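# nightly structure sweep
# worker-07 picked up a monomer target from the shared queue
# config: single-sequence mode, recycle default, output format = structure tokens
# input follows
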Amino acid sequence: MSVLRLCEEIEVPRSAADCYRYLLDFSTIEQWDPGVLRARKLTPGAVRDGTEFALTLGYFGRRFDMTYRLLDPVPDRRLQLQGTGAGVRADDCIDLMPRGSQRTRIRYEAELRFSGLGRLG
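# output follows
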């Protein structure tokens, strides 16, 4: 099994509530993660715990289709998602840390585990 860990942090001039509302719809990931080629929401209605998203990721010249599920979101603080696809599983966490009323530090961590045909290298 191969493991790829990603960790990025950025500080933005927006409130944690604004950041949360934007990131809650995980289909926006293609706008800010260069490894995501396509993303769309699968579950109808408002985004909530259990909402699913279809993503196509591109790493190391390969494409991976995955389904991500939102797990136990904590408003204005944390988003957790779990993704699965052929030979790959991902656990993503987005933490929002307010820095005053109009600044937020965002930490994005992802761990992708590749096995079988999805294995790296």
